From TrEMBL, chain A:
This protein's name: Uncharacterized conserved protein, DUF934 family
InterPro entries with a match to the protein in the record: UCP030820
Record organism: Vreelandella aquamarina
Pfam families associated with the record: DUF934
TrEMBL record, chain B:
Keywords: 4Fe-4S, Heme, Iron, Iron-sulfur, Metal-binding, Oxidoreductase
Annotated gene: cysI
Record-annotated Nitrite/sulphite reductase 4Fe-4S domain positions: 119-271, 412-548
Domain (Nitrite/Sulfite reductase ferredoxin-like): residue spans on this chain: 53-110, 349-399
Protein name: Sulfite reductase
MF terms in GO: 4 iron, 4 sulfur cluster binding; heme binding; metal ion binding; oxidoreductase activity
Length: 180, 552
């Protein structure tokens, strides 16, 4: 599905590179990766996230990693293919598109992916907590976002009701354990 | 009712701090209008026509007296001394100042309340039966299950940016009083022949611009799997629901597009991975939830009290009217549930003043174990009143203007805030309700008509549930003019149906006259003891149409 047609046109010549990267809950010193949305040609920079098909066609290039669009359907086959990726980027074409959260959870919980999963695109400070809980280990902030706000937002909550990628025991279970 | 422990309290406190931070960034220009929008919505804050609007969550309609008092205090200090109960059992403030909202949320947190996920494209407040736990026809008290759903859905990390809003309703009785067939997901708790609790899961119901009755996804889900199954349903919706057109983004469009079989197949495929996972419920977890909803310490009521009550009812016509319309039988002999009418001509349907909130809290303390329930028909309920105290309660309610003996009649109108308040509305709705209440105020006439749901929405978003009113009125905009479309035959209970439009819409001033003609047809055509809805179903739309559009 060509959901990011317009984006492809805009960034064709210049792969996106962001300054502020949150990695494992901290502001990363630098961000080596660029993100290329061009479905046809490989970017010059390395390492680079490139569209899934391009990555699949260039598996001998160790410095490439797949970029998943938000409408990617994670079949069992694709899930196992992605196990070989050194890192996986999941695109947020708009911050209101919540499909990327499900994609990250499936990669972690269903397909056991243990490498870096990076949120790219329209990534905002106030999504980071949910992203981390869904399995993102890195988030490349949209350029106008303030990294100090990001770190504060990441630590907004000390309680959660549900299980998620980080938490394997629901609060209702914890309460039972605590009361015994 | 449910009481917070340290975890619940910490979560709402941290939520307030988070929103305060977001509000500060918004006001400092570090957070843009667009970026702030879903954040404020998921804290109940709308930017409306005249002022912001704050929608406060009342989980499955349960309120403690102390909470109602706090709400009264909040409406006085931060608003204009009144609030509006909605069709989803929540409370709306119409005039808060934007910059006060973090403080209001902090005040709410002090009494174990919040406004989390009362708006936005996320899982909303779970609604239920206002007679939960006390109904004669109940199979299972839905409230502990609602609470488990509330916790599961609150700040769910995966489902905060769904294609569109997502509403869940739960019924645990023989009769559906929670309108489960017109929710994104409707749940019905029932027991199989072996006495085991099962859950019937419906999906894809809803009102709005494409009203639909939900389809059955699963008849007999064992209760242990409630949360994992819900997670599978919402995950399928999150992945495959349409995001290109907000008018086609609700789950009902997905269910319709895929067909219920394919939707079910995808849910089951997803569920196969989640089933028996860490969110599987166990007996101990359910018992822990049930502990919050104990039977109140009801004193025994002598049989003679019931006799005295029956005697008064036969002697006092006004009391009898009140009992017939506003009092509901209770599972415990000697007890009744009392519905407080919030439908009076001088106020918009569902509106309550701060003074009334405090008075109701006081009545709840004295007559009904300190608890109040909000109904989706925008009334309040005191659920546990001994029959020997009914007369006293009735007199006090009458003095407060809340004993209007019209619950369930044409006068008990469901109505959204409409064009007087809402930025989305095409037309006003409150003045229509008031005009109708004025026209049809004769009690004998109302009683003669019998049970009649008249629902009004000011636009096709259908907050006033017009599609499921026996008579539904929808405000429409035609070239800047307000018109009203009238439909008949809708119903939200067990035999749910959607109303059919009579024909071309009407001027505002003509609405009462048109409704009157519709009623005349019913009165002329009905068989003895036949409800409006049944007459309509028997004779169809045509006689109504002919009468309403007849040339003068």
């Amino acid at each position: 599905m060509p959901s990011n047609d317009t984006q492809t046109e805009v960034v064709e010549q210049t792969p996106v590179h962001v300054d502020h990267l949150i990695e494992n809950g901290k502001l990363a010193a630098e961000n080596a990766w660029c993100v290329s949305y061009d479905a046809e040609a490989l970017p010059e920079q390395r390492p680079a996230f490139v569209p899934l098909a391009l990555w699949q066609a260039n598996q001998d290039d160790n410095e490439l990693a797949p970029l998943l669009t938000s409408d990617t359907e994670l079949t069992t086959e694709l899930g196992s293919t992605l196990k070989g990726a050194s890192a996986i980027a999941v695109d947020f074409p708009a911050f209101t598109d919540g499909r990327g959260y499900t994609i990250a959870r499936l990669l972690r919980e269903r397909y056991g992916y243990t490498g870096e999963i990076r949120a790219v695109g329209d990534v905002l400070v106030d999504q980071l907590d949910y992203m981390r809980r869904c399995g993102f280990s890195a988030m490349a902030l949209r350029d106008d976002q303030h990294p100090e706000d990001a770190l504060r937002a990441l630590n907004a909550f000390s309680v959660r009701y549900q299980t998620d990628v980080e938490e394997r025991q629901a609060l209702f279970e914890k309460r039972l354990t605590a009361s015994h | 009712m449910y009481r917070y422990d340290i975890h619940d309290q910490t979560l709402v406190d941290e939520r307030v701090a988070q929103f305060r931070d977001q509000m500060e960034r918004y006001q400092a220009g570090r957070l843009g209008e667009e970026e702030f929008r879903p954040l404020r919505l998921q804290n109940g804050l709308y930017i409306q026509k005249h002022a912001p609007m704050l929608r406060i969550a009342i989980p499955y309609g349960m309120l403690a007296g102390a909470q109602l008092r706090a709400l009264a205090d909040i409406t006085r200090r931060y608003d204009r001394g009144y609030g509006h109960f909605t069709t989803r059992q929540n409370l709306q403030l119409n005039w808060p100042a934007l910059e006060d909202v973090p403080d209001i949320l902090a005040e709410l947190a002090k009494v174990q309340m919040h406004a989390i996920q009362t708006s936005g494209n996320c899982i909303r407040n779970t609604t239920s039966d206002q007679f939960a736990g006390i109904a004669n026809d109940e199979v299972e008290d839905p409230r502990p299950w609602c609470e488990l759903i509330r916790q599961w859905s609150t700040l769910h990390p995966e489902f905060a940016y769904l294609p569109r809003k997502f509403k869940i309703a739960v019924s645990g009785a023989a009769q559906d009083r929670a309108a489960i067939q017109v929710h994104d997901i409707g749940l019905r708790l029932w027991r199989n022949d072996d006495g085991e609790l099962r859950i019937k899961v419906l999906a894809g119901g809803g009102l709005g611009r494409t009203p639909m009755i939900g389809d059955v996804v699963r008849e007999d889900l064992p209760w242990q799997h409630l949360l994992t199954y819900l997670e599978a349903c919402v995950r399928v919706y999150n992945q495959f629901g349409r995001r290109d057109n907000k008018f086609k983004a609700r789950i009902k469009i997905l269910v319709k597009a895929l067909g219920i079989e394919e939707f079910r197949r995808r849910v089951d495929e997803e569920w196969a991975y989640l089933k028996d996972g860490p969110q599987t419920l166990n007996q101990a977890a359910v018992e822990a939830a049930k502990v919050h909803f104990p039977e109140p310490d009801r004193r025994p009521v002598a049989a003679s009290a019931t006799e005295a009550f029956d005697k008064l009812r036969s002697e006092n016509r006004s009391f009898a009217r009140f009992v017939t319309n506003n009092v509901t039988d209770h599972k415990v002999p000697g007890y009744k549930a009392v519905t407080l009418s919030l439908k009076r001509r001088e106020h918009a349907p569902g509106d309550v003043t701060a003074d009334q909130m405090e008075a109701v809290a006081d009545l709840a303390d004295r007559y009904s174990f300190g608890e109040v329930r909000v109904t989706h028909e925008q009334n309040l309920v005191l659920s546990d009143v001994p029959v020997d105290e009914l007369e006293a309660l009735w007199k006090e309610l009458d003095a407060l203007g809340m004993a209007n003996p019209t619950v369930g009649t044409l006068n008990d109108i469901i109505c959204c805030p409409g064009g007087d308040y809402c930025a989305l509305a095409n037309a006003v709705s409150i003045p229509i309700a008031q005009a109708l209440q004025e026209r049809f105020e004769d009690l004998d006439f109302l009683y003669d008509l019998g049970p009649l749901d008249l629902n009004i929405s000011g636009c096709m978003n259908a907050c006033g549930h017009h599609h499921v009113g026996h008579i539904g009125i929808l405000g429409v905009d035609k070239k800047g003019e307000e018109y009203y479309q009238i439909s008949i035959g809708g119903n939200s209970t067990d035999d749910a149906s959607l109303g059919k439009i009579l024909g071309p819409s009407f001027f505002r001033e003509d609405v009462p006259g048109v409704v009157e003609k519709v009623l005349e047809v019913y009165v002329a055509e009905r068989h003895e003891d036949e409800r409006f809805l049944d007459t309509y179903r028997r004779i169809g739309l045509k006689p109504f149409k002919e009468r309403v559009y007849a040339q003068q």
